[in-house]
């Protein structure tokens, strides 16, 4: 029996997890997710769609959505796909993360982030994210490969 509780992934669960992470005290890097709203979840296939209204705090010096924020979102938001019965333990280590930036988005626009679990193996999970404008234009795409197997015991 696992020492970790099993989680039934749902929009409510995703919202609560993001709220807990983004409002931690003392503040952590996860505060960047305060404005991210999960709006759709499907367990078959395992997909989550989020919405982000681009504000000044998300922007670079040119008042466009910051590429570093996009990269962080690929990492963290795709990892949310792994909070399920098939993964009863906290999720492991990123092995590879890549992002292709295709278009910039100014402050004030909504961005929709579609995250999908492509393959969930015994030790490795493969995930993808697509960032779109409200009109459907692709802003960025990301791939995330994560080790999800048992971590070796620490020695010495």
Query: What is the CA–CA distance across the termini?
Result: 27 Å
Radius of gyration: 16 Å
Mean pLDDT, to the nearest integer, reads 85
Q: Stretches where pLDDT falls below 50 for ≥5 residues?
A: 1-7
Shape summary:
globular
Summarize the helix and strand pattern as letters: HEEHEEEE
Q: What is the percent of helical residues?
A: 10-25%
Tally of DSSP helical segments: 2
Q: How many β-strand runs?
A: 6
- Across the major sheet, the strand order is 1-2-4-5-6-3
- Secondary-structure class: alpha+beta
Beta percentage is 35-45%
Largest sheet properties: 6 strands, antiparallel
Keywords summarizing the entry:
156 residues; alpha+beta; six-stranded antiparallel β-sheet; 16% helix; globular; disordered N terminus
Task: Give me the secondary-structure topology.
Elements: H1 11-22, E1 36-43, E2 46-53, H2 67-79, E3 93-101, E4 110-120, E5 124-133, E6 138-147
Antiparallel strand pairs: 1-2, 2-4, 3-6, 4-5, 5-6
């Amino acid at each position: 029996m696992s020492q970790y509780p099993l989680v039934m992934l749902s929009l409510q669960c995703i919202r609560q997890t993001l709220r807990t992470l983004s409002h931690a005290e003392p503040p952590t890097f996860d505060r960047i997710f305060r404005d991210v709203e999960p709006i759709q979840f499907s367990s078959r296939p395992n997909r989550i769609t989020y919405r982000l209204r681009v504000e000044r705090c998300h922007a670079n010096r040119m008042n466009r959505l910051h590429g570093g924020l996009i990269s962080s979102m690929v990492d963290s938001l795709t990892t949310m796909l792994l909070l399920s019965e098939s993964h009863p333990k906290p999720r492991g280590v990123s092995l590879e993360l890549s992002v292709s930036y295709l278009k910039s988005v100014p402050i004030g626009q909504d961005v929709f982030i579609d995250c999908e679990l492509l393959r969930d193996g015994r030790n490795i999970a493969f995930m993808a994210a697509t960032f779109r404008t409200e009109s459907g234009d692709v802003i960025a795409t990301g791939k995330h490969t994560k080790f999800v197997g048992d971590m070796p015991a620490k020695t010495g």
